[in-house]
Amino acid sequence: MSIRLENVTVAVPDGADRRVLLDGIDLEVAPGETVAVTGASGSGKSTLVAVAGLLRAPDAGRVVIGGVDASALKDRGRVRLRRDRVGIVYQSPNLLPALTAREQVEIVAHIRGDLGRAARERAVELLTRVGLEDRLDARPAELSGGERQRVGIARALMNEPSVVLADEPTASLDPERGQAIIDLLVGEARRAGAATVVVTHDPEQAARADRRLHLRGGVFHADHAQSRT
Ligand SMILES: Nc1ncnc2c1ncn2[C@@H]1O[C@H](COP(=O)(O)OP(=O)(O)OP(=O)(O)O)[C@@H](O)[C@H]1O
């Protein structure tokens, strides 16, 4: 399933004025496609992820996930659409200190009310895919930053999302580990056929995506790195 943003506009208070962060953005990401979004600090990248992930309603425009127009849904429907179709990888994975890696991932199924044997097996399979098969019972304090982010990726994929959104998922890691995490995320999202948007500051990471867009002045510009290649 794809995600489509149509004419999305978001403005925020700026002193006595209002500042337009997203100015009629159009974006369609196909199933299995990865789009990297770069942009200066404060350019609205996190806001874009929040809107695409149905965490924040745009002031105007629509977000359509798998053909379903989120703006036409009531709050509960929007929450369900996000829970069932969207996986989000955050800058920092915000794991629950008391839970093991396995439980951090299982909790997604628990929230949906379907933590049965199949879900438990899927959690282990995902943690294995991200290279944590030996760390299943480790708690966050026992994991490195990179390992915690791997748990965050497994957790984001647990609901078999149609759309994966990642907001600077490697911000807290060194470049080498960051690149490995991006490769893992992009690879897993492609494998799952998810439409994927990765926000990153890092041109090398952006180069791993199928398409690169640069957010400036509230609109997308084709990334310079892309036009050189
Ligand atoms: N609800 C809000 N009220 C007021 N200002 C806001 C609100 N949401 C975002 N902003 C401002 O809008 C700008 C863009 O924020 P956003 O977090 O989307 O940028 P970003 O590109 O992700 O930045 P960074 O790369 O630094 O994380 C920032 O200046 C932020 O302070």
Automatic annotation (TrEMBL):
Q: Name one Pfam family in it.
A: ABC_tran
* Entry keywords, A to Z: ATP-binding, Nucleotide-binding, Transport
- Keyword ATP-binding found: yes
Q: Does the keyword Kinase apply?
A: no
Checking InterPro entries in the record gives: AAA+_ATPase, ABC_transporter-like_ATP-bd, ABC_transporter-like_CS, ABC_transpr_LolD-like, MacB-like_ATP-bd, P-loop_NTPase
Which Gene3D superfamilies does the UniProt record give?
Answer: P-loop containing nucleotide triphosphate hydrolases
Sequence ranges assigned to domain ABC transporter in this UniProt record: 3-229
* One function term, GO molecular function aspect: ATP binding
Q: Which domain of life is it from?
A: Bacteria
Which SMART domains would you find in this protein's record?
AAA (SM00382)
Q: List the protein's name.
A: ABC transporter ATP-binding protein
Q: Which organism is it from?
A: Nocardioides ginsengisoli
- Lineage, top ranks: Bacteria, Bacillati, Actinomycetota, Actinomycetes, Propionibacteriales
